[in-house]
Amino acid sequence: MNRTTLSLIAGATALAAVTGFASLNAPAASGDNTAKAATQQPVERTSLLCPQPSTSEIAETAYTSFTPVTQGTADSGKAELQAAAEESADSASGKKTGKKTVKAALKPAEPGKPATGDGSGAEPPALVGTAEGKFAPGWTVQETTAVAAGTGRGLLGTNCTAPDTEFWFPGVSTATGRTDYVHLTNPDDSAAVVDVELYGKDGTLKSTVGEGITVQPHASEPLLLSTLASGQQTDLTVHVTVRSGRVGAAVQALDDKIGGDWLAASTDPAGSLVMPGIPKDATAVRLVAFAPGDQDADLKIRLASPSGLITPAGNETLHVKAGMTAAADLGDVTRGEAGSLVLTSTGTSAPVVAALQVVRGKGSKQEMAFIPATSPVGARATVADNSSKGTTLALSAPGRSAQVKVTASAGSEGGTATTKTYTIKGGTTQDIDAPVPAGLKGTYALTVEPVSGGPVYASRTLASAQEGVPGFTIQTLPDDRGTVAVPEADQDLSVLLKK
Q1: Average pLDDT rounded to a whole number, residues 416-438
Q2: CA 37, CA 24: separation in Å to the nearest integer?
Q3: Could you give the CA distance from residue 18 to residue 365 in angstroms, rounded to a whole number?
Q4: What is the pLDDT of residue 100?
Q5: Which uninterrupted H or E stretch holds 363?
Q6: Quick one: pLDDT band at residue 489, thresholds 50, 70, 90?
Q7: Average pLDDT of span 114-126
Q8: N-term to C-term CA, the chain
């Protein structure tokens, strides 16, 4: 974004105060103007947006909020998670005339302890959350929904997302039996204007309906993807871009036969991607990739298994044409072992986005979930709503070996935090026996912190069988945005004015 109106001092303050800014890497300099290294400071304010969980009358939704303990935070602060509501405005004057009353979905607990809330009931709303002070660094909220029957039945879960201005969702569909929605939630006081584009196997799907969509202040807009373009396609990529303002975005994919789940956005387009934590008992895995640039991508496909990197027989590569979506059925690629898919663009190293659709079970007892390509854990990653049974933590080190510290928080209703350290060999994925709080009551959170070695990628699977259907949902664990790089007071910030 262009921030030319910021003073140098205000620029440093903004970087320290709000998540969503990338760390600032000063350019090389010489002479008297040599820049000092930036320092990592806890964020002071953050936002999270939760999509409307379900319209099913039999859906049961639970929210879990958690802030990990972070050194150097303020002594005070607050966090709120409230139902989305629109600001009404006079159409002639544009002045705000009132605000709908909103009700808090849950009250977050002190850092280090999860808090839970119930989102069940008729037409539960989307949620808008803000956290300040000691509650902000690494704040995470998990939305988990169980649907006993009907389209999309099964276990659906998503981490509530930070607002942004661009999102990629490879893996959506408008095929017969699929009902996919992209949910857009606006946390701000002014309307956001959004474009939604669809890309199939032959390129852009022509549509004017997805252009200039207005999302009202503090409101959420679910868009049925099949209404944005004509025809039915099994494999599509959705690109959400924001003309003005910012939104949170997530896709809810519902299938008549194999259940449903949330599809989170893929990490930014890159020449190498990792999709961690394919369940060892997956019966079908489908890879969907999209090349957003002007060059074709030739992807080398490898599986990081418990014993090392292997190439799946018959699925060694995938060619993705520029501006088009490609897919490959990988079958039961993990063959009873933990695994993560590693993609590498060869030749031109053209950037891509990608995601996996994963199925467990057989016949009428199938359930699906998604694993989008994700960024590494970074300094620390956090995931909430874990239980002593049904939780699997997958850690992958596709490059060098790594040592990782995993902490189980106190329980939401009681229990004592505990920590274990694990070594993940290079090129492998391990399903670890995650630590569980002593005397656990309720749910707990997990934090993952690399100690040494190469980059680590992680995901968490929640599993809960219902009437023989292996319900499950998978959330990836990128960095939890707990800290931000802040320049020293005398650092040259002219880089900000050149963006």
Answers
A1: 96
A2: 10
A3: 45
A4: 45
A5: none
A6: low
A7: 86
A8: 7
Return the percentage of the chain with pLDDT > 70, whole number: 86
Check residues 347 and 413 and name the one with the higher pLDDT: 413
User: Does the pLDDT value for residue 257 go beyond 90?
Assistant: yes
d(CA 24, CA 484): 8
Asked if residue 140 has pLDDT above 90, the reply is: yes
- Write the DSSP symbol of residue 413: S
Contact 133, 49 (CB under 8 A): no
d(CA 218, CA 363): 42
User: In terms of Cα–Cα distance, which of 218, 219, 215 is closest to 189?
Assistant: 218
Of 283, 311, 314, 245, nearest in space to 87 by CA = 245
What are the tokens at 429? 């994925």
CA 344/CA 51 separation, integer angstroms: 32
Q: In what order do the strands lie in the sheet with 259-263?
A: 220-224, 178-185, 248-255, 259-263
Contact 388, 436 (CB under 8 A): yes
Distance between CA atoms of residues 374 and 377, nearest Å: 9
Written as one string, the DSSP assignment of 213-279 is EEE-TT-EEEEEGGGTSSS--SSEEEEEEEEES-BEEEEEEEETTTEEEEEPPPPSPBSEEEEEEE-
Burial environment of residue 141 by CB neighbours within 10 A (0 to 12, 13 to 18, 19 or more): buried
* Three-class secondary structure of residue 498 per DSSP: helix
Length of the chain: 499
Per residue in 355-408, pLDDT (tens digit) is 999 999 999 899 999 999 999 999 999 999 999 999 999 999 999 999 999 999
Whether 422 contacts 401, CB under 8 Å:
no
Burial zone of 298 (CB within 10 Å; 0-12 exposed, 13-18 middle, 19+ buried): middle
Query: What's the 3-state SS for 116-133?
Result: EEECCCCCCCCEEEEEEE
DSSP state of 304: E
Give the pair of three-digit tokens for residue 390.
């049904």
Burial readout 477-497 (b: 16 or more C-beta within 10 A, e: otherwise):
bbbbbbbbbbbeeebbbeebe
State how beta strands 457-466 and 428-432 pair: unpaired
Query: Which phi and psi (to 5°) does residue 53 adopt?
Result: -70, -40
- Give Cα separations from 366 to 16, 392, 405 (angstroms): 46, 19, 34
